[in-house]
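Predict the assembly for these two chains.
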Amino acid sequence: MFSSLSTFIRNVLTIFWKDLRVWLRQPSTVAATIVPPLAFLLVEALGAAAVGRSPVALVVQDTGVKGAQMAQIIHNADVFRITDANAQQARVLINNLDVVAIITIPPGFTRRVDAHEPATIDVTVNNLNLDFTNDIRRSVPDAITQFYQAQGSASPIKVTMNEQDLRSQDVSLLQFSVLPTIGLLLMIGGLITGGLATAREWEAQTIKELLLSPATSGAIIVGKVLAGFLTTFTLGLLVFLLADLLGWTRPQGVYWLTTLLIIALVSLFSSGLGVAIGALLRRIQPVIAISINVALYLFFLAGGIAVLAFEPLWLQNIAAFIPLTYGNHALQMAVFYASADQLGRDITVLSLSALSALALGILSMRRGLVR
Amino acid sequence: MLGEPAVEERTGAADMQAPPSLAQGPLYTLRVIRACMKKDIRTALTERVFTIISVFVPVNVLILMSLFVLGGSHAPTAVVMYDTGPLARQFYTAMNNAHSFSLQKTSAAQAEQMIRAGQIVAVVTIPADFDARVRANQPVQVGVQINNLNTDFTNDIRRAVPLSITTFYAKAFPDVVTITPAEHDFYSQDTDYVPYLAVSILVVGLMIGGLLQSGTASAREWEHETIKELLLSPASRWAIVAGKMLAACVMSLASTVVVLLVLIFIIGVYPAHWDEVIGFNLLFLLIFIAFGTLLGTLLKNRQPVTALSFGIAIPLFFLSGAFGPISFDTPATQFLAQLFPVYYAIVLEQHAFHNFRLNTLGTGGNVLVICAYALGLLLLTTWTLRRATVSH
């Protein structure tokens, strides 16, 4: 019993070291795995500053107090990137696509407001897509509401918003995007590393020797998954530490452990799935193509570029069947809210998914043995 | 060697053999191009799984991104109406017309359960004395509970509620709330987010398809070492490159046609300029195929070529103004985007489909930039292949 266990471990370690060495000899594949998610993070970081703050030109043609107040509120609103301009300059700016809209406080604005006459704020908007257009459509009335609120008890708008946040702190778009991107890296890394290590055995026809050797298919699979797991976990951890250094992710105390556990479980799941795909397809090219597709599907369906709670129920229901959804949830809870909310569920789902992937890999390998 | 094609078949060398007198003639060059093209198409068709996947990747990305953009534009929100008077109902209507919410009326308990379960992101509570207080011109607070997961989405709600309040007042009490926005639109109709984004995704589809087909075809020659025979043959380098690129073009066209069909018949985006759609897309394919050939020649291995083809495409897509004009973005993003042809391709594609003008270069200017990239990449690819002869 002890002897067979030690043989099993020796076989696992042999396969593990062999695959690790092969992986290290292919820096271009390592780069191809890690560069895209890093590039994606960089793009997100660069673009995050512009999200939710549309560039607009502000034209103040009114010289009265109310016009100045309104202009000040628009300046302070933190929803625009404002360029003060006259009408002609603003026209040039919008024609050159430097601004998405021109907000004009027309002459006579103060007089009309004081006289309780209809007073419009003109908004010329480049409505080429609803994302930008709706931001402007929401922001200008928001400024008008603030204008009235600033009048205190004299304000004619008596309805106000009493906001209560469900969570203790807001999380910026960039911070929020970092965790799914790390998830994407873990999925691509594990799938490609595990898949290639397995499919290569068939392409190089070394699988014959492996399957004819006394090593069990379980030991072969576990060794391969272990190699894929270690490389994927290391890459994921490095990127996570980089994000932590940049201040994007800051788990506290014991939640570092939770974070590491989740990264490990996602790595294990992706490596296991990679090995299973490799054993099923047995060709390197389809393995890469399918692995990247699978990773993208899991990334998107787990809410990679959105917030699942904002999606329709049927999409949320689909996401419930995606293991990465639970990885993202557990990471969000640990990193942003120092919370273990539903951690047991998340760990169970990820562990079961990893085990299922391992079982699928062993099954595929056995099929290879029969053939 | 069972199942392995003969060397001549693999390299297309049989078609290239020619008497010395013909070796430099145009007919011979055409034969070389045809032979290389035929060989690469045949090889691609033997790798069916890979070819099918590469054809459908852009459609996959299109579907997945559209699903999430479609859902994300309206925040699922529960409204607890303790007051069902006419003003409260008018306020509900104002929220419904804010283009920001997907509303459903629920009880307080249901709303609490739904927001905790992550099924909705906000609960708006209209108090029992809403109508009475508004009529009496007394302060009244509308409760807004937000699942503040991410500021981008949360701020949309934070702005949409005041929008609803102002709209409500402007309609219910036009003589009290006199300040209103008067909107003037550049275009006669709004373009929804998905039809806009889908056109940008077509470019990324062309990029992935072009890079994959040409990159793997080039790298395959190095992996199988058939490049030796190609380079030692009397065929000119550029004829070999042209043949391989033409083959990749034929294969990539399949992917382009699939995305175009989905775009037109499923998403319903009809091109404003058909001639531009055909011309521009062929031009973009040329660039991406030239870049793929370069990548394959440089990396000499299909694994990193395939991984990078997918890997480059997604970040470049996000960088290059896929979601709106790049000039609305940060200066750093603008600078980086303008370094890559994908940006100019998206600008031209949006013009071809929606007649949008997304930068100040004009259609001709953008086409010129793309042509310059194409020429540069072609020269670089031929030069790299020439250099590769020496080092191999």
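Residues 75-172 of chain B form a domain with the abc type-2 transporter like fold fold (CATH 3.40.1710.10). DSSP finds 16 helices and five strands in chain B.
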